[in-house]
Q: What sequence folds into this?
């Protein structure tokens, strides 16, 4: 892992369309692969001894994208790294106002992806969007592997709807509510 840390790129702060500059989130080392998400650029990095792969959320929607994982939503099981969060795909700007540019939330998705460390492949497991200009579905804020049922538990916060804890079948991508956030 020491060699991988020296290969980390430098990311200077930049303007982010939703909340300002982001940074590295979801840092996870698993079976020779160092994963992290660069928010708000919506770039998922997979750094290995022999190569670096960058996933730009093209399975969620069209470019340009903006988004990230602002809560560290990542877990690993066997030869997989599961990562989630939110992404605007594509990012759609409404124009400038008194306090700067405004982004539309029509294309803001919550998502969970699977990365296979053996074949360097990303697969979209699940995504959700409510297609509203100012409101959005709960972002994926935590992922925990449930070994009893061999599924993922995903906590969803920071949104207007579909908040709480959900089960996600890691083979089919089907979800089901486990516990609703009553706040």
A:
């Amino acid at each position: 892992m020491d060699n991988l840390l020296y290969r980390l790129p430098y990311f200077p702060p930049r303007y982010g369309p939703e909340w300002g500059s982001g940074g590295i989130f979801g840092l996870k080392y698993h079976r020779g692969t160092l994963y992290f998400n660069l928010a708000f650029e919506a770039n998922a990095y997979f750094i290995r001894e022999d190569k670096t792969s960058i996933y730009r959320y093209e399975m969620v929607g069209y470019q340009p994208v903006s988004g990230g994982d602002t809560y560290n939503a990542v877990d690993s099981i066997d030869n997989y790294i599961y990562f989630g969060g939110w992404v605007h795909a594509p990012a759609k700007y409404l124009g400038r106002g008194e306090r700067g540019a405004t982004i539309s939330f029509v294309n803001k998705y919550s998502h969970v992806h699977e990365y296979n460390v053996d074949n360097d492949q990303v697969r979209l497991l699940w995504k959700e969007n409510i297609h509203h200009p100012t409101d959005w579905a709960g972002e994926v804020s935590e992922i925990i592997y449930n070994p009893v049922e061999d599924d993922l538990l995903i906590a969803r916060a920071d949104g207007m709807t579909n908040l709480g804890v959900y089960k996600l079948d890691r083979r089919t991508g089907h979800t089901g509510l486990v516990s609703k956030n009553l706040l």
